[in-house]
Amino acid sequence: MKRKALLGIGAAAALLLSGCALGGGESTDDSGGSAQGPVTLTFQSLAYQDSTVAATKEIVDAWNADNPDIQIKLTQGTWDNVHDQLVTQFQGGTAPDIIHDESSDIMGFAEQGYLADIDQYLSEDVRNAVSQDVWNTVTTADGKVVAAPTLLQTYVVFANTDAFKAAGIEVPSGDQLTWDDLRAAAKKLATGGKFGIGWGLKQPTAAIMNTALGFDGTFFETKEDGSATIHVGDGEVAVPEKIHAMAYQDSSLDPVTLTQSGTDVLPGFLSGKYGMYVGGNFLAQQITEAAQPGFNWTVLPPLAGSAGPVQAANPQTMSVSAQSKAPEQAAKFIDYFMNAENQAKLAQGDWLIPASAPARDAVAEQTKDIPVWEPILKTGDDLKGAPFQKAKNYPQWKDQYATPALQQYFANSISVDDLKKQLTDGWQSLG
Predict the structure, then answer these.
(1) Which residues contact 309 (CB under 8 A, 6 or more apart)?
(2) pLDDT digits (tens, 9 = 90+) for 19-39
(3) Of the candidates 75, 211, 347, 392, which lies 20 to 30 Å from 250 by C-alpha distance?
(4) What is the pTM of this model?
(5) What is the rounded CA–CA span in Å between residue 368 and residue 51?
(6) Pairing outcome for strands 383-384 and 177-178
(7) pLDDT, position 33
């Protein structure tokens, strides 16, 4: 899901002034794993939707009430600049004890030794609740588990069911929606000055990398040490080409939306300008809050390419800083944070999919009277790890090369061959 304020520095300074090292531990045992005596640990959360912020605070408050010797101090970060913020914090020795991020961003930090191995501190219940494919996204080449995977984002198609009815189109159903069927529906919906689709792709790389797996587009061959070679072939650019074709050949996708964020495009969907709206499943929360009474919408079946409805499993994560003086206590909080009740609460706040199977079951049961939850959860059935998640230079390539190149392509200012070249040359320039 999806980075520049130095919120952790102030928290660290306050703790240092109180005579405790960052993390509050007064002393540690010989292994450096468990502080002796009461500790106060900083937890930098990236939750931003009101419902999820409230759920996170509720979880922290409940923990603090039951654990007087391990107190959690909640601080706020932002998805917009979390990578740069963590770079500054790690280099300055001010990193929070407990770090909220995502798997594709943390592996470079893990390779540099900034994240603790928390495997030994996690309970069997937590380990068994998450599939091995997802655990692999937070496990280093030498077997260190550097995070617990929490929530998963997928890219879904939201549909205005009244627009489909007005156009005489049946709302797609079933196990999957092919890109060709999406394009055909978009063409039929694009009438009367309206577009079939709005898709906010101002920051396009995550969406493209995640959905490329549906066409066997892997982009990278990654080695155990995180080094990788790049290959940008037909599968890797299949999704960008389909988006480009809908915008510039069919005029069924509003090209202006390709320069906007998802939240910028949402009002057009809610006002009927677009019959469909593509974005992260978390946007369902904003639709429920912003839609006018009588606005009828649903989520269509998972988008499927030639390899099926496959997307990358790029979970949000909870890590422990290797600089923390109390990693065992920090991991205990993470273990608590990962229980099914807490994950189900957070998932519903953000309309995301829990990595934990018991939490997914809980969400399904608790939302059975809300029909759009079923297709959202369905999109989590075919998630798998992707090579880019282990490529240690991925965050830099994403920001410096992939995003500008995709933006130019979606602005119709370069060709698909130019796109391939820029993506390839950019990666190779990083050495």
Answers:
(1) 175, 176, 214, 301, 302, 303, 379, 381, 382
(2) 333 333 333 333 346 777 799
(3) 211
(4) 0.82
(5) 19
(6) unpaired
(7) 67
